[in-house]
Automatic annotation (TrEMBL):
TM regions (residue ranges): 20-37, 44-61, 81-100, 107-128, 158-185, 206-233, 253-275, 282-300, 343-370
Organism (species): Anoxybacter fermentans
Molecular function as annotated in GO: lyase activity
The keyword Transport belongs to this UniProt entry's keyword annotation: yes
One GO term of the biological process aspect: sodium ion transport
Primary site of residence: membrane
Pfam families: OAD_beta
Protein name per Swiss-Prot or TrEMBL: Glutaconyl-CoA decarboxylase subunit beta
Membrane topology: Multi-pass membrane protein
NCBIfam families: Na_pump_decarbB
Amino acid sequence: MLAEKLISLLYSTGFVTVSLKQLIMILIAIILIYLAIKKQYEPLLLIPIGFGMLLANIPLTHLMEPGGLLYYLYQGVKTGIYPPLIFMGVGALTDFGPLIANPRSILLGAAAQVGIFITFLGAVFLGFSLPEAASIGIIGGADGPTAIFLTSKLAPHLLAQIAVAAYSYMALVPIIQPPIMRLLTTEEERKIKMEQLRPVSRKEKIVFAIMIAVVGIFLLPSSGALLGSLMFGNLLRESGVVDRLAKTAQNELINIITIFLGLTVGATASAETFLSLNTIKIIILGLVAFAVGTACGVLFGKLMKVLTKGKINPLIGAAGVSAVPMAARVVQKEGQKANPGNFLLMHAMGPNVAGVIGSAIAAGSLLALLG
């Protein structure tokens, strides 16, 4: 009798039922956690995603089944609640002053979104459905919450692959972007100094937040959740009268949602769904989307340099992807390599925050067409 109970206990453990694919996924999860800790690649998200992936691939936990902890937390992803709340925090953290001071920056942010639509066409060519292709293409915006939001609406079965690809490439911005920037610009172009931006008043920032919300959502109602949350968060910041709310959005709210979002997105990466040929295709297409977006931003920056008779440094176009503020920091670093006296950070922040708005509008457009 005791022997039977011991055997029954043994078979109730995950060690007996674990598969090779699950072990591979556990190894991948550990690698993501390692990269987040050792290399500091997007640790705020790769640690929760990696640990969620680890939990999801330990047999018999039932965490993602009805009644399981992660199942209930996942409803915030499934219903599209978490990404807009992340956007609210991003808005509260972001200074739109550089964009307001140089409105032309919004064109660079728009140009960098071209990678989304080119990759969309490439994904359709490779056999993905239109909703799946749209979800893959949005990786090119370099905006994890937007990618998760659109995928949860159009192709939830691809959520794990797209989330891991999106956040991995966001983490690799300092590695992926510089070779593209150097390839498409000359040393003389990288040396160009830009004039100091004019000061922007608080009144202008408040009007900007309200105006973008009203005009953007009127034009594209499907972008309301993302764009509205982004601008509401920014209004909290710029109003100057609700510091408690602004600080909550910047800290407690965005941190809590980041934990829930990362854990549950990682937990969707079960061995059965993640280890497939489609995952490899998505990772490759995501890289293409990000590279094309960066290249389009730089090329449009070169065009603006010509039109302004050398007043624009083309490097700032690379910041048009919405990896805030990492892409802007990469532009600053590359500019100073060419000219130690070059200070491009604030100039690059204009296209950078324009890219955040652009990715939300791109997602809204795709959702309106395919949702």
